[in-house]
Fold each of these.
Amino acid sequence: MKNLIFLILLSFLLPLPRAVWAKSTKPNVLFIAIDDLNDWVSFLDGHPQAKTPHMDALAKRGRNFINAHCAVPVCSASRASVMSGIAATTHGSYELGPRYEQLPALRDVPTIQRYFKDHGYTTLSGGKVLHHDFNGRLTDDIDRSLGRKRSPRPRKPMSRPANWSGAWDWGAYPEQDAEMADIQLAQNAATALKENFDKPFFMSVGFFRPHVPLFVPPKWFELYDADKVALPKNPRTDLDDLPKNFLSINNYAVAPTHAEVVESGSQRSLTHAYLASVSFVDHCVGIVLDALKSSTHDKNTLVVLWSDHGFHLGEKQHWAKRTLWEESTRVPLLIAGPGIQPGKPCKEPASLLDLYPTLVELCNLPKASHLEGLSLAPQLRDPVQSRKKPAITSSYFGNHSIRSRDWRLISYEDGAKELYDHRTDPDEFHNLSKDPNYKKIITELSQWLPTKASPEYKSKSERQRHTPRKSSHEKK
Ligand SMILES: [Ca+2]
Ligand SMILES: [Ca+2]
């Protein structure tokens, strides 16, 4: 009996085994990135026909940040900001290059997955997370390019007009889901989630669709009736109230112009292909989330789902990204998991820059001093918790958008402005910047405009590669 009492007392005095402590205070992180996914998901209000049941379910069980925006509206630069927690005005990347590790300002900055690895996490990463060169394997060799394996493409162009960029093609191809790199990645992630880990994990899974080319198997096209696909609102006079030099930020675009899309009769089928690709990637997300649900990690894993920027499909007569309007900056952003009560969607502004500080806080890691975003923990506790700082997006040097709960101010390098009231004008049709009644709100929002900005950093090869072409609007 004495021995038993002694053992019971001893069990209270001894520290808990490390694994138990780690599990109770450090949740796992499943970090799901989607490439070029705009707000055409049914948990946002971007397109009335979008079918995304798996992401909708995630939105319902966690926090849906309906006013979330990228830091830079183009792939690599946005990802450099997400993964470093640093804005373009500091790191100087506003385009498809240079790579993270080429940026002098990020040389000593650990990516979020590196930071978690350095603080005791097991890291696994697969797909397009940081770099464009990626494959469907998951590896603990994070932050490196690992060669490229993409989904198969038809031998000949399928839908695109002959003079368009090769990336801008679309159609029902290949025949089976199993041939798609994103499906293979989802299945690899699902397999990895079945494993047991002796430490908490940070698993990054980066899907490539709905990035162009918009090829997905036929069944995803069949989800939508091509003849009844709704096209975005695009009044002819919408561009009349824009400042002259809004055009200059569209240099380098490889996307077709709106005139090219309309003249070739491609708008409806491109819209159809984008919606098909969105439902396809939703299915990929579902494979991973179902695997998590049936695993031992379900109760102790934070799920974060984000897209690197939005995408225009003709709104403001523009295609693709790089603008400072809602279609380019707005992104799906969902966070769910232990401690996050389901609740109303959060209307407060959120930035992808906030992911790094948010996850560091939720996982009880030491604060990282380099971060420029704000933790979203207050809005995860209470979705109506107000937030003073707006979401700031920068596109090329000197052009910024300030998005608060109700407003968007755009300020271009030459000082020209646009102002939109999202309470009455969610499509940003009416530029109020010249109306004297809005002087005060412009002054208030302008205090957030970056006053210092690093010039655009370009490596030598980048300077050679990008030859500016005329913007979509200039070409008309
Ligand atoms: Ca992208
Ligand atoms: Ca307008």
Note: Residues 267-293 form the longest helix (27 residues).
Amino acid sequence: MSKINVFALGGLGENGKNMVVVEVDDRIFVIDAGLKYPSVDLYGVDAVVPDINYLIENKDRIEGLFISHGHEDHIGAISYLLSNINIRVYGTHFTISLIEDFLTENNMNYEDYRLYRINENKTLKFNNVIVSFYNTTHSIPESIAIALHTPDGVIVYCTDFNFNQNAPTRYKTSFEKITDLGKQNVLLLMAESIGAGIVNRSTTDYMFNYTVTNALNNANGRVIVTAFSTDLDRIQKIINLAVDANRKIAIIGRKAQRIIDIAMSSGYLKVPSENFINLKFIDEKNTNEFDDMVVIVTGVRHEPFYVLQRMIRKQDRLIHLNSNDSILMMTTPVPGTEKIAQRTIDMLNREDISIEKIGKDILRSSHANNEDLKLLYSLLKPKYVLPIKGEYRHLIEQAKVAKDYGYDDNHIIIIENGQVVNIENGAVTGYSNVEVGDVLVDGSIIGDINEVVLRDREVLAQEGAILVISNISARNQEILTGPEIVTKGFVYSDDKEELHNKIVTTFNKIATNYLKKRAIDWNGFKKSLTDEISKIIYKAVHKRPIIIPVLIDTQV
Ligand SMILES: [Zn+2]
């Protein structure tokens, strides 16, 4: 008989930064460590990760971090977590490969950390708790659900999944293992909520194949397909159909390229070598205009649209679009990117480039809908259902599904980040709280200059700009005047003065630091100002104006 606490440090009542904690007696099991992007997706610079103070304070009790799959909203906080507490991490082969790459990208040596590759046939024993896994179907290979076998029953964590029966091998659900678990007294099921409100079983792939094949056959020239790099299964399907249509294939996407490279080098993504083209930079001799080519433009959130815009403006280094090209859009805008998507379509229309948008009705969602959830309930027969992953409305939608299925209110648990469910001897006895919050981290630096300029324009239009102007004497190592703060298109809220003072204080602090040295590092100085001031403003008003430090070296 045990005392169990279950809570989330992120992912409940929000889209991203998923992280669940299960305490069995005094042992702690952490599940997933994801990031989320701040407000609108445009800014690309910073990410938000969960406040992990609770884990830091209790690090000696942690058995490990268990990862469900390799999407950023489930692994994106790992570098932050591991640089604070070096705990063991367990994931499938493909997931761990992505984590290694992610750590490398964050200037960490993955060999310094304890990353363990597991598969669904592995069970791990930690005192009175056994951890097992089963394969799930999602848009990325080797996704798993995690089961903690406690003395009082099994706690199952099954995030991002669906029950698509046509999934390829590395995406298949282990129904046998789920059925086995269902016989073992499942105490609590945590399942994802974001698709809970969708009632219809998603379409089969028939319409998808038909639409893509038609588009490939009817196109006169190149076909440019946009796809999210997280949807590896969809990218594979496009490749297969392009091969069937006797077309050559090129894949574009800077950041996405890493995921795709890993997937290709380890055999998770297959392109027949005779069909694959490595594009060369455009110059007088080379235009990459091969009529039989399919170009798959990949990226996350707004990126595929930016790449298309660059191609239309003839600023891209690989593809310049013309009216012989056709576009097949498989990137239904995620919240915050609708405007860029619409603008991109306007731009394409102006250039008379044909566009076909493939919408949600044809693209099979990789998330569980109403029916998938009910099937999971009936296979696992959990005593309690705890909806995870999603905005608050999504959690409520799953609660309705559970109710509809036959659960009463006492067996459906709705909590938000930081609320702890206390379970004793297999029954919920009450609730308590732990502290939670957001931590802002610097993301990796983005793209080439075009991308930065485009992004700046978007931000400028929506969030405004702040100029921080100061006359400085480098020779005397002192501030002469300022900082003067000029805002454009950015409106302060009520506590204008407080924010203003904070900016000035920060400016002075950073300036003092940089002026200490004889040779002033102007770039570092400006970057620190931009970073720090942008954090202050985001914290105060949740806006991200462009910060432009204007430092004038004045001879006196
Ligand atoms: Zn996912």
Note: Residues 69, 71, 138, 160 surround zinc ion (CB under 6 Å).
